[in-house]
Amino acid sequence: MEQPSLKVKKLRRNVIIPRRATPGSTGYDLFACIDGDEAVKIGPQPKLIGTGIAIEVPAGYDVQIRPRSGLSAMGVGVTFGTVDSDYRGEVMVTMYLLSPDVAFEVRHGDRIAQMVVGRAAELPVVEVEDLSPTERGSGGHGSTGV
After folding, report:
1. 39, 59, 105, 115: which is deepest, by most CB within 10 A?
2. d(CA 20, CA 25)
3. Given a cut of 70, is residue 63 above it in pLDDT?
4. Are 43 and 97 in contact (CB under 8 A)?
5. Is residue 135 pLDDT above 80, yes or no?
């Protein structure tokens, strides 16, 4: 049986293929693919930034798009996203600013997010009348402390 692999297709020229920054990194860096020398200004309204790649995720897996901690520390947000195994379009990253006081521009080749490959659990959905009790119960956000 062939080992599963993440297949990557370049959609444009000068695309940078995702790669891990270190051998211990679980995320693969995603790079902005922007035509020309123009910079894209990121603001408080979400902006889609292309990566210039499409991927083929093996059945039974998914890819999650996650923020880079370095950008988050600078006040640049990236929304979490999921790339399902049947999606074949361009991988896009939604970026925004966490504060109106921050200025940020994205240029071609900038590391803008990371993607993490995971196994997708296929569980049946079963409707029930009651759920088993726990100590926490229905306590939500902040119910276990800060």
Report:
1. 115
2. 6
3. yes
4. yes
5. yes
